[in-house]
Write a structure and sequence with these properties.
The chain is an alpha/beta fold. The protein has five helices and four strands, in the order E-H-E-H-H-E-H-E-H. The relative contact order is 0.21.
Length: 158
Amino acid sequence: MSVKVLFICSGNQCRSPFAQAVLTKMVKNGGGEDIVSESMGTISMGGESASSNAITVAKQMGIDLSGHMARHVTEDALEEFDKIIVMENNHRDAVLRMVPSCESKVSLLGSYVPYPMAGDEIPDPIGMDPMAFRTCFSTIIEAVQLFYKSILEEMEAR
């Protein structure tokens, strides 16, 4: 049985595509082939590339975002995915305004890290320097690793 994961941020140009790429790499290297993921944004117009800082910093961390094209989240997508992972509370709110019935599928990516974060949110580094992207992406890697582990445990328990 597959698990479909949707990562959501604002513009789908930084955090959510990075998280999706990290999870895809983990699945490729560590198993769980039945885990598939995509990313979308709550305010994306669709078709934008990843931000230049996101591409540069991601590449330094072994992730290629150069071919990414942003997509806007849709009601159909929200209904299709098993897990909807958001970066901020306002993303959760936008998702629930669109499809209130998917509340049980929505969680904050930051809630997977073992140390306290401001509301479990992963702040947007867009418009900031590359160090902000490195910090953000390091947090995303840690959170996705723990999220991935939780999915594998869930799949084993089935």
